Amino acid sequence: MNIAADFRRALDPVSIFREGVRDADGEHVAPAPWQCDVMRSQARRQLILCSRQSGKSTTIGAKAAGGLVYAPGLYLVISPTLRQSRLLFAKTVGVYKRLGDVPAIRSESANELILANGSHLVALPGDNDATIRGFSAPKAVLIDEASRVSDALYAAVRPMLAASPNGQLIALTTPYGMRGWFWEQWTGGKGWETTKITAADCPHITEEFLAEEREGMSEWQFRAEYDCEFTDTNESFFASELIDAAIKPEMEIW
């Protein structure tokens, strides 16, 4: 075992990113400052609101890979569909396999990874909260595309962390309108560490690319996908501000 490398990774989780993340050409990727902050964060509750193609899934995959080594336990990956969960699962496994001197893989499938140190990584679909109720005391629950995950699933996730005092709940997403648990927690929740990264914060996303994207989608879609704004969609018959203005909190409910 390379003791120096192991000590470096344990001391600074960003070393996991630098060692295990590669670009499409197989070259090492230097993490952006916000990625370093997320990698190092020990906050128990994290909301990460990011532009498309910002590298949010890669960052969380690297963070989870480090956890599998240095904080053994159960790690759950949840997305609106199993296919989406498998993408973040695959990113995590890819980073893990590029790390030297790590616990051996005892079992691996498209949905599960079991390591010799007892760590267990599982990809789950988020379309049915009943599928996750059998798990308890995870080291981390990672919810990808969280704005599109149902309130019922979010409600089912939180209690499983009761037996894991240091367990982390990390939700990452682009916005999806002024609705749902992620929007509610982002705008008024307590106890969350929040990170917001727009396309303008990502040097690898060029102005030329953004100009093409703006031409190819509606204004509300562009503002949501790249500016990280919680906009009303054209599915909404009434704008959110009109609905809010029509509600009188002091009125008695019959």
Brief digest:
This protein is α/β, with parallel strands linked by helices and 254 residues long. Helix content is 39%, strand content 17%.
What distance separates the N and C termini?
69 Å
Biggest pleated sheet: 8 strands, mixed
Q: In one word, what is the shape?
A: globular
CATH class: Alpha Beta
Number of strands: 8
What is the element string, with H for helices and E for strands? Answer: HHHEHEHEEEEHEHEHHH
Number of helices: 10
Could you please say which CATH topology applies here? Rossmann fold
Based on the coordinates given, report the CATH architecture: 3-Layer(aba) Sandwich
Question: What do we call the CATH homologous superfamily?
Answer: P-loop containing nucleotide triphosphate hydrolases
Q: Approximately how much helix is present in the residues?
A: 25-40%
Mean pLDDT: 88
* Sequence of strands across the biggest β-sheet: 3-4-5-2-6-7-1-8
**Portion in beta strands:** 15-25%
From the alpha carbons, calculate the radius of gyration and give it in angstroms.
Answer: 19 Å
| Number of discrete domains | 1
Which spans of ≥5 residues are poorly predicted at pLDDT below 50?
A: 236-249
Describe this structure in words.
By secondary structure, the chain is an alpha/beta fold. It has one domain: P-loop containing nucleotide triphosphate hydrolases (Rossmann fold, 3-Layer(aba) Sandwich), CATH 3.40.50.300. Helices cover 39% and strands 17% of the residues. It contains ten helices and eight strands. The chain has an eight-stranded mixed beta sheet, sandwiched between helices. Strand 4 and strand 5 form a beta hairpin. Helix 4 crosses helix 5. The radius of gyration is 19 Å and the shape is globular. The termini are far apart. About 6% of the residues have low confidence.
